Amino acid sequence: MILSIEELSIFSRERTIVDSVSLAVREGEFMALVGQSGSGKSLLSQAIGQLLPPNLRTSGYVLFEGSNLLEWKPKEMRALRGRDISYIFQDYQGAFTPFRSIGGHFDEYQKVHGEKSASVRKKRAAEALESVGLHPELLRRYPFQLSGGQLQRASIATSLMLSPRLLIADEATTALDSMSAHRVLELLARKQAETGCAILFITHDWRHVRRYANRLSIMKEGRIVESGGKHRILDHPQHEYTRQLIEAAPVLSNELKSGLKEVGAE
């Protein structure tokens, strides 16, 4: 088990936002965390990497390969993030500083994680762009000179560049149209097959869950209400909230009623 969250709670001064959540991600699997906006799933993902706002407190355990990350010092976490645990966020444009070239971003990212050889950094950056279907010449360009789709792929390339053990994709496809979202997820699935990394995919879109996930957990109002294998939950949801979510997704609901056929091209 690469990640094991045990009895994790997140508090503000006024209330408990995430309440005693337990969740596990196995090595090499595509795990989906599903829930409506405000369910606490993004805060849960931020707690893994100690990225919560300073006004929030935590209790419980976030075990990464057996070590409780909630006890790690900030310097230790900065070294871990990007190297062993990497994030892809919805706001991929916010990952780039307008006045630094794409190559400058890739170079600095590697320097932070201890790569001292300039030639290695340059070669790895070029390979990272090529792995997501972009030409290395884009390293000389600035973020405003790339299209939205190119920036999205460059952001993914950065996240995958150091071959993390765990990739956390937090609503990474929410702002994209159906075709762009499909391409991003196909890219993540391909990179996962190549590297063997685990993916924690946080979403409210059941179409993507149906196509890509191995297992899933359903989150409501700060609690996990159901977890299990994808087909078990889609075939036989046990919790009323899970059934409501499935029925509220017309494309998925119709396919389940017709025998769980594969989702067609989006």
UniProtKB/TrEMBL annotation:
InterPro entries according to UniProt: AAA+_ATPase, ABC_Ni/Peptide_Import, ABC_transporter-like_ATP-bd, ABC_transporter-like_CS, P-loop_NTPase
Membrane topology value: Peripheral membrane protein
CDD domains attached to this UniProt entry: ABC_NikE_OppD_transporters
Span of domain ABC transporter: 3-246
Keyword line: ATP-binding, Cell inner membrane, Cell membrane, Membrane, Nucleotide-binding, Translocase, Transport
One Pfam family here: ABC_tran
Highest taxon of source: Bacteria
Subcellular location: Cell membrane
Keyword Cytoplasm: no
UniProt similarity note: Belongs to the ABC transporter superfamily.
Protein name: ABC transporter domain-containing protein
Lineage, broadest ranks: Bacteria, Bacillati, Bacillota, Bacilli, Bacillales
